Amino acid sequence: GGNLPDILGYDETVKLIHESDEIYLKFGADKNVYGVDKEKEIREIRKAAINANLKLVECPIRHLGTEEGYKIYQKLQNHLEDDHVSLLFNTMVESIIIKDGNATGIKVHNGEEYFADHIVCAVGREGADWFATKCDEIGIETTPGTVDVGVRVEVRDEVMQFLNENLYE
Q: How confident is the model at residue 1 (pLDDT cuts 50, 70, 90)?
C-alpha cells in the first residue's frame, strides 16, 4: 500500500512483497490466493466498473483471518526469539542512541539502554509525531506519509452477489 513504489521503485517493491509473502507461507499462511483465479468474471466486473466511471483495483489476497493470524505471528515471534532477537513490547523509548552517525541503541523510560547492530522502530501512526520529534533531535530528516482512509458501504447481498462470489474483497 501507500507510496512504497515511489520510494523504492516498482521492482524492489514487488520483490519485497514476494519476500514478505514467502515468510507468511513459511509460518503457516493459507496457500490460496484470491482475486486472480476468475479471469472471465473479473473482466466482466472491470467492464461494469468502467461503464459506471469507476476503476476496479485488482489485488490478489492471501487471507490469514484473525485466529490464523495469531498463530502465524506467534510462530514468527518464537522463531525470532529462538534466533536470539530481543523483542520489547509496551516499552516507552526515551531516546535513540547515536554513535559515529549511526543509531546503535535505545534508552527506555526506566533508564536502561539496549544496543544492537540493527534497530527497528515500529511506532505506527499513533507514534509518528513522537518519532519525527526524536529524529529531528538527532538530525534525521523525515517526511510524513499519507494516511489511507477506507470507507465501508454495506448493501444487500443481492446487489453485491456477483462481486462477492468472484472477488475476495
A: low
